[in-house]
Amino acid sequence: MLKEGDLILLYxxxxxxxxxKVENKKFHTDKGFxxxxxxxxxxxxxxxxxxxGEKFYILTPSLWDIIMKIERKTQIIYPKDxxxxxxxxxxxxxxxxxxxxxxxxxxxLALANFIRPGGKVFSYERNKEFLENARKxxxxxxxxxxxxxxxxxxxxRFDEEDIDSVIIDIGSPWELIPASLQALKPGGxxxxxCPTFEQLTQTVFSLEKAGFTQIETLEVLTRRIxxxxxxxxxEQRIPSHTGFLVFASKVI
Length: 252
What we know:
24% of the residues lie in helices and 31% in strands. By secondary structure, it is of the alpha/beta class. It has two domains: 7-61, Roll (Vcp-like ATPase, Chain A, domain 2), CATH 3.10.330.20; 65-249, Vaccinia Virus protein VP39 (Rossmann fold, 3-Layer(aba) Sandwich). The protein has a seven-stranded mixed beta sheet, sandwiched between helices. β5 (47-49) and β6 (55-59) form a beta hairpin. The chain is globular and about 65 Å long. 35% of the residues are buried.
């Protein structure tokens, strides 16, 4: 049975799906309202009806759902890019990771999900409003125990050393390459995202100058397919360019 505070995805169709907590309040939709406290008598996979008799399904939200539905104060890194970052950054349960640029908390909660239970994400942010919103989003995903937020602008070095991965999400990532080099353990991974070619080239050349190796740049494109009887085709609109991903490894 679901309990107070559980996070669920209330799903009717691709346009009507909502990330909600089980709590004592009413949730209103164009199909009627649902008393969220009545979810405490339900299990995942069951359905619940609005006061108008419209049926919604109670589902477990995926990490994708959670990231796309967080409250945003900044542009987020999209799940299509986060997935590659997670795999290329050699993350594992117990890893210690630095994130610089907390933003809206999307990447912090994704990192926390993969490094738990023994790991830690150290998330740096210079804007207090952004940091508090990111903290709230991570807490909503029930991952706050694995993220330490720091209201601090890093210029020369991070507070931590012997770090497994450093992930930079600021407009000038090359400025933090020396600090990343100092914080990473030998073989540790550096990752960043660059929206423009100019940012990309300056970042890559700075990584080369700093002595990083295994430098790689890629772009991730996704396309949804509309599956319909007799007329299956790709969607006309696709989320194309969001940024160039850059990865590198520290060597001695």
